[in-house]
Design goal:
The chain is mostly helical and 160 residues long. It is 68% helix and 0% strand. The relative contact order is 0.14.
Length: 160
């Protein structure tokens, strides 16, 4: 069960509470989207760097005369690169990266990443402090927007 904001005011106070809740939810969603975009950009930059390294290796091979020769099929090309230490090192580096990413994913899943859970107030700090990134949605059961935000957060949580 997630922490809730309780309001006993009526009339103008509840309208103000509702407006503040809407603004807060919008801000949280914008921050979540910004963080996701930054993570995607960082991953794209990393992939671009790897592609650049591979292209540099190909250019170096072509300059050394080890590139594709006329009349040679694509199947024969693979044999030329089996002993290439630069490609072997790049392959080992990528395998290590993939293993590290998988280990981190398993570690995060053990911490509860990838799911939307309700917590009580006493668990709040413990839950938030054990992960580098946390999305927190303080909600009120009577607010329709909270239910909508829950639905979207539940969908997003499965992807991350």
């Amino acid at each position: 069960r997630r922490p809730t904001a309780m309001s006993k005011s009526h009339g103008l106070g509840s309208a103000l509470d509702s407006a503040m809740m809407g603004v807060t939810q919008d801000a949280v969603l914008k921050n979540v989207n910004r963080d996701l975009e930054e993570a995607a950009a960082a991953e794209a930059a990393s992939q671009s760097q790897e592609d650049s390294t591979l292209e540099h290796t190909r250019e170096a091979l072509a300059a050394a005369g080890l590139g594709k020769r006329e009349g040679q099929s694509d199947d024969d090309d693979d044999d030329d690169f089996d002993d290439d230490p630069a490609l072997r090192a790049l392959e080992q580096k990528r395998i290590a990266q993939m293993k590290a990413m998988h280990a981190k994913k398993l570690q995060n899943q053990a911490k509860g990443h990838g799911e939307l859970r309700d917590i009580v107030e006493e668990e709040f700090l413990a839950e938030c402090c054990k992960s580098e990134r946390v999305v927190v949605h303080f909600y009120h059961a009577d607010f329709e927007r909270c239910k909508i935000a829950d639905k979207h957060l539940r969908d997003i949580s499965k992807k991350h």
